[in-house]
Amino acid sequence: MAQKKNFLLRMDSDLWDDLQVWASDELRSINSQIEYLLKQAVKIRRRTTDPDLRKDATKSNATKIT
Known about the structure:
By secondary structure, the chain is mainly α. The protein has one domain. It contains three helices and no strands. Helix 1 packs across helix 2 and helix 2 packs across helix 3. The longest helix is centred in the middle third of the chain and has 20 residues. The radius of gyration is 17 Å and the shape is extended.
Protein backbone atom coordinates (compact mmCIF):
# COMPACT_ATOMS: atom_id res chain seq x y z
CA MET A 1 0.00 0.00 0.00
CA ALA A 2 1.22 3.49 -0.82
CA GLN A 3 2.40 5.64 2.04
CA LYS A 4 -0.14 8.27 3.04
CA LYS A 5 0.80 11.94 3.10
CA ASN A 6 -0.20 14.30 5.87
CA PHE A 7 -1.39 17.84 5.14
CA LEU A 8 -3.36 20.61 6.76
CA LEU A 9 -6.76 21.45 5.28
CA ARG A 10 -8.74 24.51 6.29
CA MET A 11 -12.42 24.75 5.53
CA ASP A 12 -15.54 26.65 6.46
CA SER A 13 -17.16 25.42 9.66
CA ASP A 14 -20.49 24.85 7.87
CA LEU A 15 -18.76 22.60 5.35
CA TRP A 16 -17.06 20.76 8.21
CA ASP A 17 -20.45 20.19 9.89
CA ASP A 18 -21.97 18.89 6.66
CA LEU A 19 -19.05 16.52 6.10
CA GLN A 20 -19.26 15.32 9.68
CA VAL A 21 -22.94 14.41 9.28
CA TRP A 22 -22.30 12.77 5.90
CA ALA A 23 -19.36 10.78 7.25
CA SER A 24 -21.40 9.66 10.24
CA ASP A 25 -24.24 8.51 7.96
CA GLU A 26 -21.75 6.35 6.03
CA LEU A 27 -19.96 5.14 9.18
CA ARG A 28 -16.70 6.85 8.24
CA SER A 29 -14.40 9.30 9.94
CA ILE A 30 -14.32 12.77 8.45
CA ASN A 31 -10.81 12.09 7.20
CA SER A 32 -11.94 8.89 5.46
CA GLN A 33 -14.96 10.67 3.98
CA ILE A 34 -12.79 13.44 2.51
CA GLU A 35 -10.36 10.86 1.12
CA TYR A 36 -13.27 8.90 -0.40
CA LEU A 37 -14.72 12.02 -2.03
CA LEU A 38 -11.35 13.05 -3.42
CA LYS A 39 -10.77 9.58 -4.88
CA GLN A 40 -14.19 9.69 -6.55
CA ALA A 41 -13.45 13.12 -8.01
CA VAL A 42 -10.12 11.90 -9.39
CA LYS A 43 -11.79 8.87 -11.00
CA ILE A 44 -14.32 11.14 -12.71
CA ARG A 45 -11.59 13.50 -13.85
CA ARG A 46 -9.52 10.66 -15.29
CA ARG A 47 -12.53 9.37 -17.20
CA THR A 48 -13.25 12.76 -18.73
CA THR A 49 -9.62 13.60 -19.58
CA ASP A 50 -8.45 10.21 -20.96
CA PRO A 51 -9.28 10.26 -24.70
CA ASP A 52 -9.77 6.47 -24.90
CA LEU A 53 -12.12 6.43 -21.94
CA ARG A 54 -13.96 9.49 -23.24
CA LYS A 55 -14.67 7.68 -26.55
CA ASP A 56 -16.04 4.68 -24.65
CA ALA A 57 -18.25 6.93 -22.51
CA THR A 58 -19.55 8.72 -25.61
CA LYS A 59 -20.39 5.42 -27.28
CA SER A 60 -22.23 4.11 -24.24
CA ASN A 61 -24.13 7.39 -23.84
CA ALA A 62 -25.11 7.36 -27.52
CA THR A 63 -26.40 3.84 -27.13
CA LYS A 64 -28.53 4.83 -24.16
CA ILE A 65 -30.02 7.85 -25.89
CA THR A 66 -31.23 6.01 -29.01
